[in-house]
Each structure stands twice: as C-alpha cells, then as structure tokens.
Amino acid sequence: MSKTTEKTAEFIDNAAFDASKAIEQASAFAEKGVEQSKEVLAKFQAGSETTQKALESSFQTAKAVSSDLSLKTIAAMRANVDASFSHFEALIAVKSPSEFAELQTAFVRKQVESAVEQAKDFQAATTKAFEDVSKPIKSAFEKAMKEIKVA
To answer: Shortest CA distance to 80 belongs to which of 100, 120, 108?
Structure first.
C-alpha cells in the first residue's frame, strides 16, 4: 500500500464519526440557508414593490407632462397661424412695394423672435418634464443603493 492510502486508512480508523453531530450541523446549516433565503426574498419583494410604485408614478407623470407639452404645441401653432393670417391681411392692404418690404421684414423678424421664445419654452418644459418623470425612478434607485450599502 502507498503511504497516502495507509494514512487515509489510519485517519478513518482513528476518527470517531458522530452521526448526531453531523445531523445537527447539517440541520443548522439548512436552517441558516432557509433564513438567508427568506431575507433575500423579503428584500427582493420590497424592492419590487418600490420599483412598481416608482414606475406607476413615472407613467402618471409622463401622461400629465405629455398633455402639457401637447397643449403648448397647439398654442404655439395657433399663435403662428394667427400671426400668418394677420400678416396676410396686412399684405392685402399694401399700396407700395416699400410698404410690402417693410411689412415682410417686420413679420419675419417677429416670427424669428417668436420661434426663439417658443423653443426656449419647449426646452424648459421638456427639461422639467424629464426631471419630473425620472424623479420617482431616481429616488427608488438611490434608496436601493443605500440599502445595498447598509447590507
């Protein structure tokens, strides 16, 4: 026999195997595993509920923001159409080419200024909308990250 086989046989002969201790250790190990699984499941469930609430809140906010942006778009389009019709009416009453050029220049300048203001309004509204929609998700993520750091 080899030295390793002899030592293994000697160890087995000398080692007193206590089945009750092995069962106790296996039982304790299994109980600990069950407890850890319950803790993980509870954390997962709480995280899922938090995420669901955050998503619902974000969707509701997105719906409200979408309506607001749609109304802003309609108002801007209405203002542009009204300005165009007013300009067209003024052009009908033109008596000279210089008056036409003056009206056209003023109209274009006013439309460019209006477009710049409308773009600023849309940008501000869109930025606010993005912040409002992402706020619940961001809060839930930050909360989850704090809980992970604590654990």
So the answer is: 108
Those residues whose C-beta lies under 8 Å from the C-beta of residue 6, and which sit 6 or more positions away, are none
The closest of 81, 75, 69, 89 to 111, measured between CA atoms, is: 81
Number of domains into which the chain is organized: 1
pTM of the complete model beyond 0.70: no
Name the residue range of residue 140's domain.
19-150
- Which amino acid would we find at residue 116? V
Q: What is the pLDDT of residues 57-69, one digit of tens each?
A: 888 888 888 888 8
pLDDT at 11 exceeding the cut of 80: no
CB–CB of 54/139 below 8 Å?
Answer: yes
Q: How many CA atoms lie within 13 A of 125 on its CB side?
A: 17
